[in-house]
Amino acid sequence: MKVKEVAELTGISVRTLHHYDEIGLLSPGRRSESGYREYSDVDLETLQQILFFRELGFPLKKIKDVLNSPSFDRKEALILQRTMLLEKRSRLDQMIHLVEKTIQHAEGEIHMSNEEKFEGFDFRHNPYEKEARERWGDKAVDQSNAKLAGMSEEEQKAMGEKMNAIYRELAALRQESPASEEAQAAIKEWYDFLNSNFGSYSLDAFKGLGQMYVADERFTKNIDKFGKGLAQFMCEAMGVFADRIR
């Protein structure tokens, strides 16, 4: 399909498609003899992925990083996108309901207590737990939560310090190849740490977790506090580790 046909099919402007090409986000696999861009079915699948991520608020640079990752898996991404979109829909439904009640309160039709005015806002839950249950099942998450609940404050602090030490070690290596001996030794330490403290991680689950580090900007933001680009580096190193061990 030519660029104009893709624009008509998707509702995206020709200018936007040209921009995606220019920044290397979506470059058509071929061009016609006259030099026009021609999009294949594979290109259209990639465009669909881009639009899903855009709907979830991902910046173009982050989308490019995710799609270019050697460990990127389209089905894995679709599962994560579905989970995040369902979560987004649920939260929007809560906000709409709260706004409607607030309008009724402002017009004197109902009375809202202070508690009711903020019933749609809940920042106390773990934002990653839903994704974890979707990917690895209730058993793994419940085991992890139970173990944490049974630890003393000192034990939790020691575990946190160990985790931060591994992050710092990996951050110091992030300019190296994710497949290097040093990087793989450090990522094995991360694999062993997760299995010792958060239940049993299969190689597929470990690789999937790495993909989430770059697919979910919440993970990326927290991990990259130890060094810009660390989340991407860990994602690639975890993919290499999982593929080598199989």
From the spread of the alpha carbons, the general shape counts as flat
Question: In the CATH scheme, what's the topology name of the largest domain?
Answer: Globin-like
Would you identify the regions where 5 or more consecutive residues have pLDDT less than 50? none
CATH class of the largest domain: Mainly Alpha
**What's the gyration radius in Å?**
22 Å
Explain what the structure shows.
- The protein is mainly α.
- It folds into two domains: 53 residues, Multidrug-efflux Transporter Regulator, Chain: A, Domain 2 (Orthogonal Bundle), CATH 1.10.1660.10; 172 residues, Antibiotic binding domain of TipA-like multidrug resistance regulators (Globin-like, Orthogonal Bundle).
- 70% of the residues lie in helices and 2% in strands.
- It has twelve helices and two strands; from the N terminus they run ααββαααααααααα.
- The chain has a two-stranded antiparallel ribbon.
- A hairpin with a 5-residue loop joins strand 1 and strand 2.
- The longest helix has 33 residues.
- It is flat, with a radius of gyration of 22 Å.
- It starts with a helix and ends with a helix.
Q: Could you list some keywords that capture this structure?
A:
single chain; 246 residues; mainly alpha; Multidrug-efflux Transporter Regulator, Chain: A, Domain 2; Globin-like; 2 domains; two-stranded antiparallel ribbon; 2% strand; flat; MerR-type_HTH_dom; transcription regulation; MerR_fam; DNA-binding transcription factor activity
Question: How is the topology of this model organized?
Answer:
Blueprint: H1 3-10, H2 14-22, E1 30-31, E2 37-38, H3 41-55, H4 60-68, H5 74-106, H6 114-117, H7 129-149, H8 153-173, H9 181-197, H10 203-215, H11 217-223, H12 230-245
